[in-house]
Amino acid sequence: MADPTTSLFLYDRSLKVAPGGVHSPVRAGTSVGGEPIFFRFAEGAYLESVEGKRYVDFCQSFGPNILGHRDPDVTSEVDKIISRAWSLGTCEPYSLELAEWIQAKVPWAEKLRFVCSG
């Protein structure tokens, strides 16, 4: 039986529930001659695989982690926000405050809309 703590084992499991075994073709690894690596931990510029091997994360989630994984200042601010609400899906003052802050920095941004798309 395969070791359940390896990326290969997790990939085999994932093949049963996700097309190609991954949730994005970019993560497949097959286009570069391998299987995807499964990661269990990230901090700063580093990722740690389920096998315990450390990697430099040059991708940083394609941009959102520009300050690195688990940045203490970002984490502190996120903790403050989620202590009030996780996700409202309604009108709330926080996105208004963010839009006003962005407009103060980028005056040519006449209108802003925050969306979640994929």
List key phrases describing it.
alpha+beta; elongated; 118 residues; 3-stranded antiparallel β-sheet; single chain; 3 strands
List the helices and strands and how they pair.
Elements: H1 7-15, E1 39-43, E2 46-49, E3 54-56, H2 72-82, H3 93-105
Antiparallel strand pairs: 1-2, 2-3
Model description:
- With 118 residues, this protein is an alpha+beta fold.
- It is built from three helices and three strands; from the N terminus they run αβββαα.
- The protein has a three-stranded antiparallel β-sheet, with no helix packed on it.
- The longest helix has 13 residues, at 93-105.
- It starts with 6 loop residues before the first helix and ends in a 13-residue tail after the last helix.
Numbering strands along the chain, what is their spatial order in the largest sheet? 1-2-3
Straight-line N-to-C gap: 37 Å
From the spread of the alpha carbons, the general shape counts as elongated
**Given the structure, what is the number of helices?**
3
Helix/strand order: HEEEHH
Give the strand tally: 3
Structural class: alpha+beta
Low-confidence regions = none
What share of the residues lie within helices? 25-40%
List the quaternary state of the chains.
single chain
Beta-strand content estimate: 5-15%
Largest sheet: 3 strands, antiparallel
State mean pLDDT (0 to 100 scale).
87
Using only CA atoms, what is the Rg?
19 Å
